[in-house]
Hints:
Elements: E1 5-12, E2 21-28, E3 34-42
Antiparallel strand pairs: 1-2, 2-3
Amino acid sequence: MRPIFVRVIRVLDWPTYDRWLWIDGYELATSGDAVARRSLFVMPAGLIWPDPPAPAARHPTTRTPVKRGPVRVG
Length: 74
């Protein structure tokens, strides 16, 4: 068996056994692109939730001063 990564769309309200549930989602390729839609019967205790991706580093922007002065209109 090999694990798959899934982007969960919703939890379905279908009848199940105790502590089990149906989820709808997209199977993800290693690039993060969705490759197949899946309905999965899972036990939440057996799922592994990946850490959310770290936010991209923000580079400080350099600002150019704006010339201020009288404006001619018309």
